Structure formats: structure tokens, C-alpha cells
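Batch manifest, entry 17 of 40.
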Amino acid sequence: MDYKKNYKLWNEYKNLDPKLRAELDTLNEKEIEDAFYTNLSFGTGGLRGLMGVGTNRVNIYTIRKATLGFANYLVKNNLLDGIAISYDNRHDSKLFAKEAAMIFAAKGIPSFVYEELRPTPMLSFAVRHFKASGGIMITASHNPKEYNGYKVYDQTGAQVSPKVANIIIDEINDIDNPFDIKTLDSNLITYINESFDDIYLKAIEDVQIHDEEKRVKIVYSPLHGTGGPIIPKFLKSKGYEIYPYEPQMIVDPNFSNTLSSNPEESSAYIETIKYAKTLDADIVMITDPDADRLGIAVKHNHDYHLLTGNQTASIELYYILSQKKKLGKLLINGQVYTTNVTSMLIDAIAKSYEINVVTTLTGFKFIGEQAEIYQETNPYIFGCEESYGSLISDVVRDKDAVQAVYMLAEITNHLKLKDMSMIDYLNHIYKKYGAYYEFTQSIMLKGIEGSQRIDKIMEHFRSTPPVVFNKHLIGYDDVLLSIRVEDGIKSKLNLPKSNVLRYIYEEDTWMVLRPSGTEPKIKIYYGTKKETLEEAKAYLDELNQAFLKQIESI
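Output type: C-alpha cells
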């Protein structure tokens, strides 16, 4: 792409947004190249990027262009039953939502737009409830405050598949002028008010398994985002003693009262754990800005311990299967959904209850897609991925932190009635199945040079599998080439093409290399199983250090 041509088009546009004009006028040549050398593309979470001026940034013009591309796709495929739209707390999210609705209106497509910010799972639910042709969630999920973007959904309420995303991208790329896009504020735009909250909450309350005396104390934070208007009032209505951390309940695009907007980072818990200690709370729960991910810190031996997304999902699954089996409510023909970078403990738990496991690529869109395929023959039981996301009831077809909060509140309370902590419960699971542990290493590589470096790393390990302490390589998956190799024998891999490499070694050890679809980084996932958690952690730390040295030598 000719960045100079793009820059010239933007620079010569006389009516450019004043804020973007001021930024454009300050850019040096390298900054101009980075802002204009490419268009934003759909990754695992949809369209996402830094906010600012340029074709490689999120701004009102790139949002309009992407939305028109989506609208053109809908018109060409006669998908005209409307689009549901929601948004988070980020800068200009509400503005972008309205702009998107007006572009759909100009194309004759109705929309259902939340009046105020609401979680991603409520967007997915709205698509299904209104029998819409798709949806848009204006969000950058857990990314830092400098980011925004949106997730695009199909008529099932799941994020669009790579195949559809590529068609939409083609439609977007066919639009030459981002400054000549028609918008229309009309009665085709229907606003969803807060009365819809109860419809959604009524639909998910069935995830409850036991309705017991409530003795648990819960500290909750939405990290300034969309969970604030929904989660505290819902838990309170169910009898839970809930303590929202008020400084982070404020809707704030700058995330002023937290060091991180990401529940995967320990810095996101600092203030809520301090607050929990003053209350002697049993659990701290925090949801990311669009409330599809949940992180927890649990009290054990008078201190608070952070659990990983894999650990939390394993606890949820074990509780659901074990308790439903006791009650005679376990659907033997039901299915559990996981991803190829999620803990193998999920597989072990499900298979111990003779429940089938479907493994997909990273990204809940793949879980949603598979759930749609099997909905008539194999009832949905549970789905999860390592990045702090799970789904219990498939009335939603994306990660749902509201459901996860509700279930984990029940689990924490159920255990407290038995004088157990969540750590006690996790140790019980490890004793039964083995101490599974996983670790993810992210390497940030920004800009054009970073992108080239990521390509070089993937190219190297595609032809030369990583060495893991001289352990035997049992097999590997090259998802991009659709190849599985086991004991030297090649077979076809039945997964959508994606730039992912997965290696399986002896003694329950595995690795995955995957460039992020939404951020300028490459992610390395590790997993193993040992006798104790301490052994597993030490082993993966040593493995990670050794592998980083292999990367440095490339």
C-alpha cells in the first residue's frame, strides 16, 4: 500500500475532523508511514487498533469505512433484518456506535442500539433476541486506553468467521474515499433502554445449580467499564452480599483509578484487593471494559491469590459437571468447547464424565460457530478459553463475564458452606487429575519492523520445531498449512487456516506460537502436567527462558 498516496488524500481533505487535523500536522515522516502504510484488518477480536489519524488507526473515518463495508456485505447477501449495536466506555465509543447506526440507515438497514454502554454478551444476546442479521460491539476489549475498535457478529450472535471477515475486508477495501460515505439519522434506528437488562438477566439466571443460604462476601469492579450497570444489581437481586469498588465503578475512558484495564494483569487488582482486606471479603471479581472476560482473586489462609483463566475455567467446569451429575441433570450427549491454547485439564475433566470435547482455534467466534453446528444434536454444556473467558449458557454466543460472575459467586458460596476456599477446591481438582499448569509469554513487536520480525520467527519455527530439553516431539499442527504431523506421518488438520503452530512433546508438555490478531505481538503458550503445581511452574519458567534464547538467535 502506498502510504504517501493515502497521506495525501487525508492531508488534502479540507473538512477533516479538527482534532485529527491537529494530530496530522504534527506527524514526522516515520509516524506518517506507520499511520498510513496499511488498513486496519479483522483479527481474532474484529477491528482493533490505536486511536488517531490515518488508515492504520481507529477514527471516525475508518469506523465509517469499515461499517459501510459490512453494510455492503449485508445488502449483497440479503441480510437485512437489522444490526444490534452496543459499546463500551472508551473514547468516542458512543459516537462510533451512532455513526455506525446512521450508515446502516443510509443503506436501508434497521439497527437496535443500546442507549447506554452495555457488555459484549448483551450485544450477542440482542442479536439473537431481535433475530437480527448481525451486530457490532464498539470496544477494544481489555486493551489500554489508547485503543478502540469493534467486534463484528453474524446472525447467530457469534463473531463472524474468518471466511466472512475476509469478504467484509474485501468490501471495505473496495471503498476508495473514506470521506464520501453517506449517513442518515432516521427512524430505522431503534434505541434499547435499560428495561432490556431484565430480559437478558432472566435468560441467564438458569445457569444457577444450587440456591443455598448466602454467606459469601464479594468485592466487584468493572474497571470503569460496562459491567458496572449490570453485575452488582444482578448479584444483589440474587441475595449476594456484593461490595462494588466505587472508584472503579465510574464510567471513565481514561481508566483513571486502575493501573490496568486487563484482568490478566496483576496490577488490575491492586486497589480491589486492598478494599477486600478491609471487608474480609471471600473473593474479588473484576471484569474487563466490555465485560466478556472475568478475573478473580480468592481468599485463602488470610491472603488473596490470583487465579489464571485456565484455573478459573477448570473450577467452573468441574463444579458444573460434578454437581449436575449428583443431581442427575448431566446431559451425557452434551459437549464442552475449548481451544488449542487452553489447559488440557479441561479435556481431562470433561472426559472423566464421558463428555465429548470440541477443540477450536483461539477466539470465541470458533466456539460459537461449533455450538451453532451441534445445537440440534449435542446440547451445549460449557465453553472456555485461557484468556479469562467462559460461557455457560449459549443464549449468548460469546464469552460472558456476567454469567461467569454469577456461577463463581455460587461456587464460592457453596464452598464456604463446606468451610473450603477456592484454593482448596483447586487442590482437590489437581489431586484428582494432576497439577496442570499453563503460562503465556507475549513479545511486543510494534510497527513495520515488528511485523516483519514476527513473520521471520514464525517462518523459522514452521520449518524447525522448537527444542524442548531434548524431549521427544510427539507431533505438531501447522494450522496455516492445515497439516498435522504425528510420529512423522502427515494428515489433514480440520481447523480453519490460521498462522498458528502447536507442538506436543512427551510428558504432557506442549507449546503454541501465535501472532496476536489484535495487537502488535507474538504470543507463546506453554502447558505441562506435574506432580505438584510448584514443579509445573518451575518447569515452565525454565522452558520459557530457554525458548526465548532460541528466539533471540534467529
